[in-house]
């Protein structure tokens, strides 16, 4: 994932974000790029030839009116600017996504209870395997979705997949750090509470799906960012 800044033909600044990945349907390597200008945002996807390397200027030339930019853009190395651009990407429909996955036992009614589940059930593990691959975070070199990849500060493992060329990192409640002393599980809330989409897995062992559904109150997941909640019930 690389970010660049430059000036267009009108001497107006622009930002360019580039991600290289693979289309899961065709297995064709793709270059996905988002161009941020004061006039709006544009996106393109370009196939990558194994025998030819695309330069940044070549990628830029595929955007309207950007083929005659005098100077090539400069790569951005500032972590703060990279973080801001990543947020912009997510707001724009994004190249990559991060979704929350919450394990909930029957009878639990508050987010403190739900996020205090230290482990999930075997059935929850089966569900996670449908979403993606369980990956080791330390040393991870692909999209990390805001998780720590150096010191296990956000857990040792996570779940990751690529869907139609888009990288997806799942913030799994039971894989994020658990604290016996902190009933509010602040570290888990910090990630899941900032996800726009959360999937709630209701482990309704002794209840019907209808009963479990009626007992679940979406407002118990307190967040200023979450806009979509999916429920998955298993009995």
UniProtKB/TrEMBL annotation:
Q: Name one GO molecular function term.
A: GTPase activator activity
- Write the record's keywords in alphabetical order, separated by commas: GTPase activation
Query: Entry's InterPro entries?
Result: Rap/Ran-GAP_sf (IPR035974), Rap/Ran_GAP_dom (IPR000331), Rap1_Ran_GAP (IPR050989)
Q: What Pfam families does UniProt report for this protein, alphabetically? A: Rap_GAP
Any one Gene Ontology biological process term?
regulation of small GTPase mediated signal transduction
SUPFAM superfamilies of this UniProt entry?
Answer: Rap/Ran-GAP
Q: Which domain of life is it from?
A: Eukaryota
Q: Please report the stretch or stretches of sequence annotated as the Rap-GAP domain.
A: 85-235
- Name it: Rap-GAP domain-containing protein
Instruction: Read off the PROSITE patterns from this record.
Output: RAPGAP
């Amino acid at each position: 994932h690389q970010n660049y800044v430059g000036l267009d033909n009108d001497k107006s600044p622009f930002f360019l974000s580039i991600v290289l990945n693979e289309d899961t349907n065709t297995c064709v390597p793709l270059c996905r790029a988002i161009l941020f200008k004061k006039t709006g945002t544009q996106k393109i996807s370009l196939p990558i030839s194994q025998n030819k390397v695309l330069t940044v200027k070549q990628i830029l030339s595929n955007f309207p009116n950007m083929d005659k930019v005098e100077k090539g853009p400069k790569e951005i190395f500032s972590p703060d600017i990279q973080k801001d651009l990543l947020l912009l990407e997510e707001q724009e429909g994004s190249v990559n996504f991060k979704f929350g996955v919450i394990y909930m036992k029957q009878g639990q009614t508050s987010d403190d209870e739900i996020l205090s589940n230290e482990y999930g059930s075997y059935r929850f593990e089966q569900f996670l395997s449908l979403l993606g691959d369980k990956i080791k975070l330390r040393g991870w070199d692909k999209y990390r979705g805001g998780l720590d990849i150096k010191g296990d500060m956000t857990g040792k493992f996570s779940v990751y997949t690529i869907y139609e060329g888009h990288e997806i990192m799942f913030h799994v409640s039971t894989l994020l750090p658990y604290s016996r002393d902190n009933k509010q599980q602040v570290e888990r809330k910090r990630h899941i509470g900032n996800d726009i989409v959360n999937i709630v897995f209701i482990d309704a062992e002794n209840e019907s799906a209808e009963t479990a559904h009626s007992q679940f109150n979406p407002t118990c997941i307190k967040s200023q960012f979450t806009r979509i909640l999916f429920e998955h019930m298993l009995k």
